[in-house]
Amino acid sequence: MTMSFAALTPKIICVTAVRIFLVISLLWYLVCLFISPGQGSVVCDISFPAGSGIRRLANELKAGGVIRSSWHFVLMTRLRGDAHRLKAGEYRFNNNMTPDVILRKIVAGDVDYRKFTLPEGYSMYQAAELLEQKGYFKRDAFLEKCRDKALLARLGLNEASAEGYLYPATYNLSRGGSEEQLLEQMVGQFNKAYAGIQEGEGARRFSRHEIVTLASIIEKEAVSSDEKPLISSVFHNRLRIGMPLQSDPTAVYGVRAFTGKVSKADIQRPSPYNTYLNKGLPLGPIGNPGMDAVKAAMTPEKTDYLYFVARQDGTHQFSRNLEEHNRAVAYYLR
């Protein structure tokens, strides 16, 4: 009896050791799968290009400190049948995420975007400054792309720059995205929106570029959307009789952002955009208008107004002649 127990002991020890190893391995697998390795203090940006393998991804996640084991991550991915369902893109993870959550995000293509909002009326210079402030792109690099003739031609713009065609909206930028990709989005959105506008009187008188140019001035002048067709009527009426537009925002374009006031030096500054010194429309847009301004430029209100002056609340008083206008100026700007 003693000899039989002694003979079985190595087998029992071996089986027990195997069981213990399997239990420990299973527990470690579950830990690796369902328990995050930290509290979120470690952040890891991962670029997962199309065609990349799961092993490379797992190694980067491990090196970035957001998973405990690259081997277990690969195993989990293959057991789930997700190895060929991973979506390429730019991702951001932290060590408070479980491998399960990380894998689900990659399978879903839940890439990490940086949001950028271009307000209506902002010029390409202001857009460039915003992008640099956010740390997305360098100001000069973005402006260079706005004037890149080859890029503009590819985007269907036969103009000196993309000014006027950067659609005001909120955009999602991938962390590996370029200035060119953002411009493609913005001009593409503009083209879609413009195509949906019903053509009016302006479209019969002016080219698309002239409509956009006029719309950019209307956008800069108007505070209230309701007044845009009225402001448009003033400019249409002036253009019809050959009267200078004398729009304040045009006097400072390319020099500084328009803040509501201009100086005598501003309106006397030589510039192809300055409508105090040049009759007709300026050389091109002075900002990027929203579609309300484009619609107003295309379909102005029917009026005989030739002047307007800002009231204290930002709305405008419209006048038919210089005498009326001078009285309005004396009243509202006293």
SSE topology:
Elements: H1 2-34, E1 43-48, H2 54-63, H3 70-79, E2 89-94, H4 99-108, E3 113-117, H5 124-133, H6 139-146, H7 149-154, E4 170-174, H8 179-195, H9 201-205, H10 208-221, H11 228-241, H12 248-252, H13 264-267, H14 291-298, E5 307-310, E6 316-319, H15 322-332
Antiparallel strand pairs: 1-2, 3-4, 5-6
Gyration radius (Cα, Å) is 32 Å
Please summarize the sheet with the most strands.
2 strands, antiparallel
Order of strands, widest sheet: 1-2
Q: What characteristic shape results from the CA principal axes?
A: elongated
Helix fraction, binned, reads 40-55%
Structure annotation, total helices: 15
Overall tally of domains: 3
Query: Order of helices and strands, N to C?
Result: HEHHEHEHHHEHHHHHHHEEH
How much strand? Answer: 5-15%
- Briefly note the structural class of the backbone: mainly alpha
Number of E-state strands: 6
Give the mean pLDDT: 89
What report would you give on this structure?
The protein has 334 residues and is mainly alpha-helical. The strands form 3 sheets. Strands 1-2 form a two-stranded antiparallel sheet. The chain has a two-stranded antiparallel sheet with strand order 3-4. It is elongated. It has 3 domains: 34-111, Dna Ligase, domain 1; 114-195, no CATH class; 203-304, no CATH class. 49% of the residues lie in helices and 9% in strands.
